[in-house]
Sequence to fold (130 residues):
Amino acid sequence: MARILRWLVLAMGVACVAIGPFHPALGNDSVPGEGAASATADSLGRFFGAIFAGYGLAWLWAARQSPIPATAVRWLAGVFLLGAVGRLLSLAVHGWPQWFQVLLTVIELVMPPLYFWLADADEKAFRDRA
Fold:
């Protein structure tokens, strides 16, 4: 379980750091279906892209710890879950987004419980080795 946790934490960090810079660089064009969005939406998307990259760096920091801190995994997974809640609120208020955003919502709802479940696997393995 500890190996799965380490891989998932590392994969999340790499994915977020890889995706994040596209938003500041491409603006509205980085979001499928949003090329014609307003200057306000463009500004917001570029800002959040930088924040997303920083969020990925936090995952990478956690992946490099030995053991991976369960508290950090839980907090980072909680933030990810809050993102999914935001998407669900948007769906309730504005309706269905572009299909890729729906897919991201599903991922954002499925992954946090997995992270919560595995969060202390590396700490437990570390204690067992000691």
About this structure: DSSP finds six helices and no strands in the chain. The helical segments are 2-19, 22-26, 39-63, 70-94, 99-118, 121-129. The two ends are 17 Å apart (CA to CA). The mean pLDDT is 93.
